[in-house]
Every structure is written in C-alpha cells, then in structure tokens.
Amino acid sequence: MKKRLMALALTAAVGATALTGCGSNQTAATTAAPATEAAKTETTVAPATEAAPAADGSVYYLNFKPEQDQQWQDLAKAYTEETGVPVTVVTAASGEYETTLMSEMGKSSAPTLFQVNGPVGLANWTDYCYDLAGTDIYNELTSEGFALKDGDAVKGIAYVVESYGIITNKSLLEKAGYTVEEIDSFEDLKKVAEDITARKDELGFAAFSSAGMDGSSDWRFKTHLANLPIYFEYQADGIGATDAIKGTYLDNYKNIWDLYINNSTCEPADLAAKTGDDSRNEFLAGEAVFFQNGSWEYGNLTGEGKFTDDDLAMIPIYVGVGDEANQGLCTGTENYWCVNAEAEEADIQATLDFMAWCVTSEEGTNAMANEMGFVIPFKNAVESPNLFVKQDVAYTNAGKLPVSWNFPTMPSEEWKNGVGQALTAYAADQTDANWAEVVTAFVEGWATEYALANPQ
Amino acid sequence: MEKALKKYSPLFVIPTFAAFVIGFIIPFAEGLYLSFCQFTTVKNAKWVGIANYQRAFADESFTNALGFTVSYAVVSIVVINVIALGLALLLTRKLKGTNIFRTIFFMPNLIGGIVLGYIWQILINCVLSIVGEPLLALNETAGYWGLIILTAWQQIGYMMIIYIAGLQNVPGELLEAAEIDGANAITTLLKVKIPMIMSSITICVFLTLTNSFKLFDQNLALTAGDPKHMTEMLALNIYNTFYARAGAQWKGLGQAKAVIFCILVIAISMIQLKATRSKEVQQ
C-alpha cells in the first residue's frame, strides 16, 4: 500500500513538472505573449476593475523602439486604468524586430499592433495589414503623406517623425575656436575636423566619436549615412525608388566616410569592434565634438550629469552635393503603425481605439511628446521639448530643405550588411581596391538584392 | 515489485511521452511539411513541392557553410579529444590537487555559449589589435581558429570527466599484468588503456561531432558569420536564411535547409557510432 502511494506521488510529481509549461499560460489569461527571448521586456496590465470594460477586446503592441520601452509600458498602464482594456506592450531587442514579429505573428495570440519600416517592409506583411482608411487615427493625420498606401488601401500610419544629422558639442567646438554657424558646407566641416585632428594632443579631444561598425552602431553609416548619396541621386534623377542604383554620388560618400574615420577618437582599424555605446560614451565624456545620430538620442544625451540644451546642436550632414547652404537635417520616418488584419474583430477595434487615444487624448499626446520626445504627425500633437526636433523646425522655417529618408527603399538587410562590411574593410585598410569593393556592394549589390527580394 | 512496475509504467511514461510528442514529434512533422511550402507565418502555408530543396542545394552560401562546418568539425574533434584524454591521463595519476584541477578544467563548461562568445570576441580582438592584424569582423582565419579555441576551451573539461571515469574503470590487474610483462607507458596506453576506454571514446566523439555540427550560439556571438558569411556555420546559415531575410520566398528555403541539416547530422553520427562501437571491448 505504501509503495502504491509512493508510486502515485511520484507520478503526480512527474505530471506536474511536465505540465508546468502549459500551466503558466492558463493562470495568467491576460498575458497575451509568453516572453521567450530574454532580451524582451514585457508587462501586462490587468484591468483595474471588472466593472468598466469599454470593449471586450485587448491590445498587444509589439514595439520597435527599445529606447522608449518604459514610456510605452507606462502609457499602456494609464490607458488600462482609464478604460479597462488590457494593453500588452512587448519590445523587441534592437535589430531583432523582424525576427520577433515573425515568430509572434505565428502564435494564436499575435500582436494586434505592429510596425513596418516603409514600402520594402510592407511588402512582407501587406497581407496582414488592416485597411486603415477612414479610421479615427487616419483622420487625425496632418498630411496624407504620412500614410503608407498599397494601391488605395491605407496599410500603415506614420506615428513619429524623426531627424538625424551631426550632433555637435558646442562648448568643445568653441574651445577649438569655431562655432556651429561657421559650418555650412562639407568644405567647412572638413576644415574644422582636420584642424581639430591636427591639434588633437593640445586640445585633448577628437573631431568625431568613433564610427563603430559593430552591429549596435553600423546602421548609422550603412543605412543613415548611405541615405545621402541615395537621396541626391533620386533628386537628380527625379525618382523616389529604383531597382538599380547608379552610385552617382559615391565619391561624396567616400569623402564623408574618410572624414569620419580619419578624424576619430580611435584608429580606423579598431572601428570594426566599436559599439554604439562606445561612441555615445566618448561623446558624453567630451572626447569628441561630433557624433552622427538622431533626435532619438536626445534623452540619452541630456539629463543629470550630462549635457544641457545649451551645449548641443545638430547640424546637417554635408557631403558636398547640391545647394549646401540650404540643406536641412535628414527628416522622415521609418515607423509605420499597422493593425493586424487577422486579429479578432474586437481586438482590432480595441487597437484602433488605443491608437486614436494615444494621439488625441491629453495623456497620450503628452506622453508621446514629453516622455518619448516624439514629434507626431497628428492634429492634436503637443510640442516636443526635444532640442533636435525644435532645431529641425527652425531649419525648415529658415527655408532649408530637409533631406528625406530614402533608406526604406533599400532592397534588403543583406544589402545594408554588404555595404557595412565593405565600409569596415575599407576603414581598416584604406586602399582604392577596398573602396571599389564598397562601390560594388553598393551598386551591384543593389541590383542583386533587388532581384532576390522581388522574384518574378 | 515487477508486477507493480508493469502496472504503473504507463503512468510514468505517458507524461514524458506526451511532452516528447508535443515538444518534438509534432513540430518536427510540421517543420517537414513546411519545408515543402512557401509561407510568412506558419498558419498560411502554400504547397510548392520540392522547389525549396532545389534552391537549397543551388545556394552557394549553404554549401560554403557546409564546407566551413566540416573543416571546423574535423579539427575541433581531434583537438578536443586529444587534449581531453591527455588531461584525463594526467589527472588520474594520483597527483596532489587533482580534484582542484578537475574542477577548474570543468568550469568553462558551466558558462553559456553566447557569454563565452562575447568574452572571447573581446579577448581575441585585443590580441589582434595589438599585433596589428585585422579584427575578427574582417579576419576569416582568426574567426576560424577563434571558434576552435573557444569550443575547445569550453568542451575539453566535460570530455575530460568522461575519460577520467573510463580510465578509473580500467581494472588494476590488467595494468599490473602489463607492467609485469614489461610494457612501457606508451604501450600500456595504446594496447591496454585505449581499448578498455573505447566506450568513453565513442561517447566523446559522438558528443563533439554533433556539437560541432550543431554549433550556433558561439558562432553567432563570436563572429556572426563575418566577414561576408565566410565564418558562417550550417546552423547560423539556416537561422539567417529564415530570420535575416524578409519575404515569403525565404522561409520555406530555410526550413528545407534545416531538414537537410537534420538528416545530415543524424547520418554522420550514425556512421560514427557504428564505426567506434565495433572497436569496443566487453569487460
């Protein structure tokens, strides 16, 4: 009898262990998404009271921006407290968005709200995108241009407009004997940077923070910097996308890249292993005057023990093409909200309500402007305290023409990686042969990747 | 007792068996099916027949990854097993402090592959920077040897423990008899010890062989396939095909590669098991 009891107890124990995995899902019914990757953070907010369910749907937002994870969690919580609709926010780790989205979309509780980066990203997910034409959020847009369309259907809605350029430490620049106003062409930038490098030991700082080519930082150059030659080529040819890039302005790309790597805090050969954090920390520590990055970095650069608005400025990335005196910052978006068309009807409605709330309610617009530092292209937007964003407005008001974001038209991630790899190799060994590799990766890589990404 | 065992055995087996079916058999069957499909998410797959397999074999990056994996596997299997056996021989000699050494050699095995990969990436990059060579992201040779050093460092301790257990099971009488017959250390090793530990060798070679083919996290963390996919191993190539590429046409291809990979690993390890098993002696 005793043995029998023991056997039963053991069986129960084995059973319990085997079923633990399933159990956690049932006990937390509101937990929409099990977090498998350690890098993801997740909070689920349970309805505050069961008495006030506005709708019976729920929202699952797969957030693209790790910088704003906490703010989204807080906003989701506030929304749930106000309306009783559960909102789950999961943030994908940097560079892992497509991967995470793909596995999450395969689940029974898939994200109801996700994002794509533009036309190329949309091509992959268009079947899953709910047509947003006529929805509240669509009607709130300040301009049709912020809607991502596929034919007549509105598949995505831009929810943030960002700018990037060369972030400048004004105090250091003055110490070197220059002001930001003096720099309004590639020639000026080159003169200042090379002068700082020549006096590096005396000044105690370098011109540019390291142009790291580690995965956490290389997008600044293989994507954002590469936008400039693409932008000017599109402008010259009067097009908005292409299946074969010509590389008309690659010499200018080379000039600015040479400037970055040879006037930096470290040896060009060491750039291969430098990370985004390295670069930012150098800039924060006052080791470099210039730091190529965007308005999203504002929160990381200001605050206690860091810079104040008076120390910083963002100047356009001059590459020596076009009307440089009237060139503005690179301003655009690669963040489009999409609603999962395969989700339950109630969840879609809940998601649309949540989106509309985010961009119309006082709390939502405040959080997006002040907490997240976003400029949102919606009618009720609150002015953002973000210095770089304000500067972009000032540049535009002064009649300077913003450079648009064309990297959503790049054919694939693989193309960017190919260019990045060639840039890294060139930085380590600056020969003409190595630059020819960059050109090959840029021009021939584009055609190859375009063909692979768009099979007949 | 036996009756009770028979009676209750299903109770013990069913939970684990169910977990095996849910966690392995069903996903495997689904994966096999998906390798013949084109899909974005697993819910809506479209049957395309063997097209994915044709593309997989025509894909140069896949065959390159196979070549790299094989050359890595051959060297790492030899390095790991030779050093592990050597250490095991040293540490069964009743020297002072053997337990401490065994613990220390085993320790790297307790650290995860990703962490190890990043630690070694920093170490190797430092060395390369000092000697003025291109860093890992641009240096195929350093990537190859880095992977071998890393995995050897990680796995030698584990294999050493298995060899020590084997060596401790070699009967004392046999060794004594060999000594009386005038056999020297090398003859004893080759003619007595190694034949007697063939079962340990079988296990160790099997483990290192399958580990080499399945290697993923170390590869991802150390080189991520740089430069230009030249240090990309099979598992990472499959992962990149599936995840780093956007578009339905890539998912089924990745799936087909995974099936080929699975069959390949099973076939190679079966051949190896058969070959080394036949040399085992019954004690």
Kindly describe this structure.
The complex is a heterodimer of chains A (456) and B (283). Chain A has 18 helices and 13 strands. Chain A has 456 residues and is an alpha+beta fold. Chain B has 283 residues and is mostly helical. Chain B has one domain (57-277): Orthogonal Bundle (MetI-like fold). Helices cover 76% and strands 1% of the residues of chain B. Chain B has 12 helices and 2 strands, in the order αββααααααααααα. Chain B has a two-stranded antiparallel sheet. In chain B, a hairpin with a 7-residue loop joins β1 (37-38) and β2 (46-47). The longest helix of chain B has 33 residues, at 2-34. Chain B starts with a helix and ends in a 6-residue tail after the last helix. At the A-B interface, α1, α3, α4 and α17 of A face α1 and α5 of B.
Tell me roughly what share of residues is in helical segments of chain A: 40-55%
Instruction: Compute the separation of the termini of chain B in Å.
Output: 30 Å
Instruction: Indicate the low-confidence ranges of chain A by residue numbers.
Output: 14-54
Q: How many extended strands of chain A?
A: 13
What is Rg of chain B? 23 Å
Counting copies of identical and different chains, the oligomeric state is heterodimer
SSE series of chain B: HEEHHHHHHHHHHH
Structural class of chain A: alpha+beta
Quickly give the structural class of chain B: mainly alpha
Tally of DSSP helical segments of chain B: 12
Q: The CATH topology of the largest domain in chain A is what?
A: D-Maltodextrin-Binding Protein, domain 2
Q: Per DSSP, what share of the residues of chain B sits in E-state strands of 2 or more residues?
A: under 5%
Instruction: State the major sheet of chain A.
Output: 6 strands, mixed
